Amino acid sequence: MKKRIEKTVLMDADGVRRALTRIAHEIVEKNKGVENLVLVGIRTRGVPLSERVAEEIEKIEGIRPPQGVLDITLYRDDLSMLDYQPLVRPTEMPVDIDGKTVVLVDDVLFTGRTIRSALDALIDMGRPKSIQLAVLIDRGHRELPIRADYVGKNVPTAARETVSVQLSETDKEEKVVLGEIVEE
Predict the structure, then answer these.
(1) Who wins on pLDDT, 50 or 89?
(2) pTM, to two decimals
(3) Rounded distance, CA 163 to CA 179, Å?
(4) Sign of CA dihedral 19, 27, 88, 91
(5) Class of residue 109 by CB neighbours under 10 A (exposed 0-12, middle 13-18, buried 19+)
(6) Is 158 inside a domain boundary?
(7) Residue 116, SS3?
(8) Mean pLDDT (whole number) for 54-82
């Protein structure tokens, strides 16, 4: 039987807050403001992270960019391999993304497959001017040629290790934990 053990806390609540504040500043700087900018959180933890980045951008610019919520379940390349009935939740896009700069927001960038699925889902909704990626943690091990434009923290990991982002909105705790899968 496999068990996940916690090895170390990579970021505490203050570390998460500081990283998201920096990401918000970088987004504003790179895009020279927030005109035609849309933030899109990937379910599950990308959604509250996107909301927090939008709050920070509003503090900086005085304008809150529109936010969308993206469910990529039906776009997963392993959907046919799953042995359960997938739970598909709504995708919510408050504005037309045609001609906009879309910033996808997610918690952990690992193989790149989640982001590839998100790109497919976005393109089905319209033709953005550009798509950028913001992640709280980049842990490496890419299987696809995808990289983040904005990274809270780069964490080189071994394949057997795990990175767990825990947010108050979804987990009642606020931290990023490096763990390991071990045999019992």
Answers:
(1) 50
(2) 0.93
(3) 6
(4) positive
(5) buried
(6) yes
(7) helix
(8) 87
- Contact between 106 and 54 under an 8 Å Cβ cutoff? The reply is no
Residue 110 maps to a domain: yes
Q: Residue 79: what pLDDT? A: 55
Is 35 domain-assigned? yes
Rounded Cα–Cα distance for residues 148 and 33 (Å): 19
In a domain, 17, yes or no: yes
Tokens standing for 170?
């979804």
131 is in which domain, residue-wise? Answer: 2-76+87-183
Q: 165 and 108 in contact (C-beta within 8 Å)? A: yes
Residue % of the chain over a pLDDT of 90: 83
Query: How far is CA 74 from its chain centroid?
Result: 18
Based on the structure, what is the number of domains in the chain?
Answer: 1
**Strand arrangement of the beta sheet that strand 101-109 belongs to:** 67-70, 37-42, 101-109, 130-138, 150-154
Residue type, 111: T
Q: Residue 35: which CATH number? A: 3.40.50.2020
Q: For 124-173, how does the pLDDT look when each residue is reduced to its tens digit (9 = 90+)?
A: 999 999 999 999 999 999 999 999 999 999 999 998 899 999 999 999 99
In whole angstroms, give the CA distance from residue 65 to residue 55: 9
Round to whole Å and give the CA distance between 105 and 45. 9
Answer yes or no: are the C-beta atoms of 104 and 40 closer than 8 Å: yes
CA–CA distance, 106 with 149 (Å, rounded to integer): 12
